[in-house]
Write a structure and sequence with these properties.
CATH class of the largest domain: Alpha Beta
Mean pLDDT: 85
Helix content: 40-55%
Pfam families: GerE, Response_reg
Number of domains: 2
InterPro entries: CheY-like_superfamily, NreC/VraR/RcsB-like_REC, Sig_transdc_resp-reg_C-effctor, Sig_transdc_resp-reg_receiver, Tscrpt_reg_LuxR_C, WalR-like
GO molecular function: DNA binding
GO biological process, one term: regulation of DNA-templated transcription
Low-confidence stretches: none
Shape: globular
Keywords: DNA-binding, Phosphoprotein, Transcription, Transcription regulation
Order of helices and strands: EHEHEHEHEHHHHHH
CATH superfamily of the largest domain: Response regulator
CATH topology of the largest domain: Rossmann fold
Structural class: alpha/beta
Number of strands: 5
């Protein structure tokens, strides 16, 4: 489902995605409330491409209400949308810049549909650096006791926006081993994906902006 209050943007995105052999656009919505109504009637909805700023109901509230349902990919201009972090906390699986290329858009939908989180490291670092300092909640740190020392190291590097390959290089591990550590870390903490891991790490004060 493509959700955007601008007809040309919404139609253009839908046309690009519908032209792919493995992607089907099953619905378009003009705002968050419209998206919620339509999503309730679509049994196999996998991904919602969600704009942030819309009338009636914005993308953040719509994402919160869709929690536990289809995975949400946030569409953002980034520099203007200061509520993207809130959208990620509400359950979004990632974000995509509106100035992204056609190929980046298609890849983003495939990544999210495949169950992964979309965290472009450079953009993630900018986003977290901008908003994280005001979100710290040290009481969350107690929940990290279930992690091994290595899993905690991996969590820190994930929170800094590093890819599995970068983490493997930093810790002198194979990329397969890193994937295993990430999977176990997410499972132990009851997290769905890397986005939630980033948020938890900053909430816990395990890492802070710029460190």
């Amino acid at each position: 489902m493509v959700v955007d209050d601008q007809d040309l943007v919404r139609d253009g995105i839908a046309m690009i995605l519908d032209g792919q052999p493995d992607i089907e656009v099953v619905a378009q919505a003009v705002d968050g409330a419209d998206a919620i109504r339509q999503a309730a009637a679509i049994l196999d909805l996998a991904v919602v491409l969600m704009d942030v700023r819309m009338p009636v109901m914005d993308g953040i509230e719509a994402t919160r209400q869709l929690a536990g349902g289809p995975r949400v990919l946030i569409l953002t201009t980034f520099d203007l949308d200061e509520y993207v972090y809130d959208a990620l906390r509400a359950g979004a699986s990632g974000f995509l810049l509106k100035r992204s290329s056609r190929d980046e858009l298609i890849n983003a939908v495939r990544v999210i549909a495949g169950g992964d989180a979309l965290l472009a490291p450079p953009v993630t670092r900018r986003l977290i650096d901008r908003f994280a300092d005001t979100r710290l909640d040290p009481t969350v740190a107690a929940g990290l006791d279930v992690l091994t020392a290595r899993e905690r190291e991996v969590l820190v590097l994930v929170a800094k926006g590093n890819s599995n390959a970068e983490i493997a290089d930093e810790l002198h591990l194979t990329e397969h081993t890193v994937k295993t550590h990430v999977s176990r870390m997410l499972s132990k903490l009851g997290l769905r994906d890397r986005v939630q891991a980033v948020i938890l790490a900053y909430d816990a004060g395990l890492v802070t902006a710029g460190r």
